[in-house]
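User: Hey, quick favor. My workstation is busy. Could you predict this chain's structure for me?
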Amino acid sequence: MTATDPALTALAQGWCALSLLHGRIEAHIERALQARHDLSVREYSLLDVLSRQHAGEGGHLQMKQVADAVVLSQSATTRLVTRLEDRGLLERYLCPTDRRGIYTDVTEAGLKLLEEARPTNDTALREALDEAAKNPDLAPLVRVVETLKAPMPA
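Assistant: No problem, here it is.
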């Protein structure tokens, strides 16, 4: 394959379309969450991921798992956790079985804010997808997104 190969050009165009769709959706959701709840998309995602933890086996996430789930580096995730902890939305504590491990939980205030913000997030997502579906280059991707289901835990 060469740089001018039609297959590579098609892949590049597909990647650009996917990147454009993601950027438009994220920007739309960001504006809605900021305006109504003073939350960024990343903050909302972090609260959402951490709210799904449970007390059972493997129910608490390590910082690397959290970073992977919110698509940030570990250091960026730690800074984000600190900001939300300073706002009283998260709290950290030592792992009871491994004192080297630190877990993060969503506080009652964080759960309340997440509950209030979830409809805003969902509505903004729907609006962004509906708008993107009007663009012939993005419409096929929108249809794919609409058929995706969350992966089942391993």
